[in-house]
């Protein structure tokens, strides 16, 4: 889905009904793979509207939705946003390249280090 602001693309979200990526891939749960709002359109509730729309569509197919959020500080605002929206960790720990991280193993803190968040709809 695209978000328009004064006829310009301001952001987007990808929702997959039976998501094949992320922590809950293959569980027939709708998943958000990417939610992004361009810098100049932030702080205008666009992410909220996009997430509302994605959740409303997902609700027609399942009673939950999930997403993976990166753990590095660049994603701090997104982490806080999702938690405030009622998303909670799936309880399996941290993922790297969609696999659960093993204890006492070093992983690179890049965009592949994520936490899977789930929300009951």
Can you give a write-up of this model?
This protein is of the alpha+beta class and 121 residues long. It is 19% helix and 38% strand. Strands 1-2-3-4-7-5-6 form a 7-stranded mixed sheet, with helices on one face. The chain is globular and about 50 Å long. The two termini are 19 Å apart.
Care to give the gist of this entry?
The chain has helices spanning 46-59, 76-84; strands at 2-5, 8-16, 31-37, 64-70, 88-96, 99-100, 113-120.
Percent in helix? 10-25%
- Average pLDDT, rounded to a whole number, is 96
Tell me the radius of gyration: 14 Å
Structural class: alpha+beta
The main pleated sheet reads as: 7 strands, mixed
Query: How many individual β-strands?
Result: 7
Distance between the termini: 19 Å
Secondary structure blueprint with pairings:
Blueprint: E1 2-5, E2 8-16, E3 31-37, H1 46-59, E4 64-70, H2 76-84, E5 88-96, E6 99-100, E7 113-120
Parallel strand pairs: 3-4
Antiparallel strand pairs: 1-2, 2-3, 4-7, 5-6, 5-7
Defining traits:
121 residues, alpha+beta, 7-stranded mixed beta sheet, 2 helices, 19% helix, globular
